[in-house]
Write a structure and sequence with these properties.
alpha/beta; Rossmann fold; 1245 residues; elongated; single chain; 35 strands; six-stranded parallel sheet
Length: 1245
Amino acid sequence: MTDRRRKPAEQREQAKAARQATSLNPGFGQDLPVLEHAEEIAEAVRQHPVVVICGETGSGKSTQLPKLMLELGRGVDGAIAHTQPRRIAARSLATRVAEECDTRVGEGVGYRVRFSDRTSPGTRVKLLTDGMLLAETQSDADLADYDTIIIDEAHERSLNIDFLLGYLKRLLPRRPELRVIITSATIDPQRFAHHFDDAPVIEVSGRTYPVETRYRPLAAQSEDERERSLRQGVLDAVDELAREGRGDVLVFLPGEREIRQCAEALRKHHSAWTEVLPLFGRLSAAEQQRVFAPHAGRRIVLATNVAETSLTVPGIRYVVDSGLARISRYSYRTKVQRLPVEPIAQSSADQRAGRCGREGPGVCIRLYEQDDYEARPRFTDPEILRTNLASVILQMKHLRLGAIEQFPFVEPPDPRYVRDGLKLLDELGALDRRQNLSRLGRQLARLPIDPRLARILLAGNREGALTEMLVLAAALSIQDPRERPMDSREAADAAQSTWQDRQSDFAGLLRLWRDYREQAQHLSRRKLQAWCHTHFLSHVRMREWADVHGQLHGLVRGMGLAENAEPAKAVAIHRALLTGFLSNIARREDGSEYRGARDLKLAIHPGSGVVKKRPRWIVAAELVETRRVFARTVAEVRPEWIEPLARHLLKRRVHSPWWQADKGKVMGREELTLYGLPIVSGRKIDYAQVAPAEAREVFIRDGLLGEPPPQPPEFLSANQALVAELEALEAKTRRRDVVADLDALHAFYDEALPAEVVDGPSLQRWLDAGGDDRSLRLSREQLMARGVESTGVAYPDHLAISGVQLPLRYHFEPTASDDGVSVCIPIAALNALDPEPFEWLVPGLLEEKVITLIRALPKSLRRHFVPVPDFAQAVLEALPDREGSLESAVRGELRRMTGIDLPGDIWEAVSLPAHLSMHFIVLDEEGQTIASGRDLPALQRDLAGRATAQFAARTEPGFERTGITDWDFGDLPDQVAFDQGGITLQGYPALQVESEGLALRLLDSPERAETIHRAGVRQLLMKRFAQQARQLRRGLEGLDRMALLYRDVDGPDGLRRDLTAAVFDQVFLQQGVPRDRASWLTCCEAGREGLIEAGEQLRDRVSDILSRQEQVRRALKGNVSLGLIDSYQDIRHQLDGLIYPGFLLETPPERLADLPRYLEGLRRRVERLERDPSRDQAGLAVIQPHQQRLDETRERHARRAIRDPALEQVRWLIEEYRISLFAQELGTRERVSEKRLARAWEDVR
């Protein structure tokens, strides 16, 4: 121990003389349990350096022990230090002891708490917080100012208490005359005795009465139900106790939320003469005081564990114990101070039960099992086992007390928590590489506040924001002065709204401080209290804030730090705050959820002013876990502020070097993360500055042998042109032996270039300095490995599809996405292209593709086509060029040559080598790639809207029109050609229905144009014959009844709409859709007279169809036996394929006439099903393969955008086949059989 922390002897003698001159007259008039043991205590203190005194609250330990020590003559050689866990207790106890010793506070008896000292040289009894006594060890290592130290309320086992007890254990051998008295509630006093070498334990508890314990466990349920069950359990327990007789009830609940819920339930449940009061730490002083006020009737107090030992609630005869408490626990893994609700320890349960045995016999009802109680731990974990140890470690290092692992704590802390404390100090910059205090750490240790708050003060000095940091550090070191009483929450929120800030709760605190200081300067003390009351502020806590601020102000001034005269900017304030709370940053992910350090999921606390804005990045003064992790006292920050403040913590990764041709440099990416959060993502750096050797490799590989810089040297331009020429030959012929490999070219440059050339600028410097350009030129002989021939016919540079000349690109790289041949498609032409012609690739690859298709056949089929190359050659000679699907054409030729019929989906699952499928590149109007892939229908689906818009933007001006009400626009050609970017595109004119009426549009797909034009002409006809259209929609008899039958298919409006449209199609468009005015007039004249009659006929037909489908649907209702499920599913599938929304327009008129017969067949099938299921199963076995093949083929055609009339023919043949199998007596439209169906399948693409 160094001498600098020991007071000089002369100073100690002067203090002793002052104490000797102070006369105190302690009186012992009260009948308190501790006084009954006065002589026993005195003797123990004379004989032992440490005495443990245990007793319940109210036994007089705190008030009488210092007086007993005075009676023993102590408090002269040194003062009597009497510690308290809380400042308010130290102040109030000093007042009480001073009164009983007939002296004034600050003279014979005084107190010293953080930032407040009411002592004098003659003070003999000094009340102080345990933290303050610890702080005194910095200037008085041996605590030589004291001859007696009373550690009061040691059972609370706070961090400071445990630290003090360890410190005193080391100190006592150096100071044998020192006496230490440890007071505790009746919670594990033997642990203290054992820590001090089996010190004597004296029990001084007062008289207690018997307590009957009853167990009324709650049912085990889900979390939500447990909350309801807890409320009901409390109500039931209170009802049970009400029958026991008079007396107040104390109910222990885990937290504020449960107290509010139970209070509301009890007030509704009990009569007006029962008073229900809450008691928890966040209540205002006035609300807490109501618990101790006299009252009539019964009182029910709902309390947290604050009422276990800290406060004695008078008049309690009954206790209801939920067995739960919210315990503060620090998670070393998530770095969050958690407040989980946990089962209490046995000692806490005993303390709770003891609350009802003070004034008479009591009853305690525990809302849990006795077995549960007996299985619980005996004692609650002390704070040192469940909190962050950074502050302790900082002070231990400052006091040079050695390693924390060797310090004699009552219970040694978990090594994981020690490591975590060291990590926090490292985060704050308090430690050097050897884990000793840094210069900054020594400054932090001089400030008696949380290390995080000390850190923001030092940062505030650097940022020019020390004035604001003093205010905020003081605010964060006290309990929030803003109150929110249970019965005035809305009023409190309104009164305090002026201090809410959408960007920063810290800014709100600064505004509150400024307002308070302004009021304090002009108002009297009483008026200031009234102002606080009006704004729901605790006057005591506001005064404490001001006291702490004043003391901090003095401390920083003593350290030579200067406050800023001008208000600091928000950026400076929040940068300073970040230094103390770097591990409390978070980034918003989805919705209101944030991801914090180490992947912690959290949310902004609902009481924060920032919660509605939901900024991208935040910093919080505190992270607390209750039902979830909440960030409290929050501000918006920017990630760029964090990097310079966290350089010592950032993890840096430099990666992904690449050649950036426009700069002529090798660039890389830099990633900076703080505790897993990306602070900098993908920032570009000059890679040659970091890794020149690696940069040179990239420069040669990707610069000299890849993409040249914007102004390449002459040698490089010549080399690149020669390479490009030879690589084009390689790509087309898919050979890798034309150009010398990259290794050889790399070696050429690597040998020719000096070592200092690592990128474009260094190359240019070398050339400017006289480097030999000729030594870097490649000859054709050096580049070309072997000769090759290529023809434009086999590997053309363009492909003509749908009248459009499309450029081709070739690439030979089997693992690349664009391996093979790629076709470049302007987006405006995308929708018009049929996928099938692209299956044929280019002539040079077609034979390989056909050979691959044949070889991919199952062996049982492939054996019919050997030798495969010969069959492939014969097929190619017979095939037309690019007509229809290549696969269909190959199947057809193989069938013609051998008679072997291959299934239509035989190659569906075959995965061809990538280069045997066309690769599509969709280009925008600037020639830049929008999307690419090998699935043209998928690209068309994904880009349909954009392609349509781009096509429309490129159409000939003046062609399109809107607001059309008659055919006054001449003739419409089938297609129109126009130019886009040097490529001729085809447009397809159509009359289109739009939200604002009819318009003449040029569309990009013939199929789409056909469908849209039909609907447009139909709409124009409806305008011309509007009266008849209205009559069809509204006047046809029986439509309402039909709509009811249609309700399960589509709404009533859908039926009227489709029926009207179908009538117009049948009457006007049966012979085709007009595309010129003459055809339009003919069409109008031909259908003028027959509309209503046709509508009535179609109505009758549709009515019949709907009635029959309703019969089938009714027949399908009810229970189905297991053996018939497949049949019922098949029937429903057929029914849904016949009757669906839009079927009136999509079903050809001639087939619409067949629907009643198909539906009657379905009805008869259902009717016969129960009678003869075996017959139905036989028919199902025949039809199901065809139906499944139809469904699969339709799906495949939809994916590939194929319109195949042959497939529709198969569909209706299958319907007829069903009639022949299940209702033969109804007859078929045409002859149908397995053989007929097989022939129809042959025509399907």
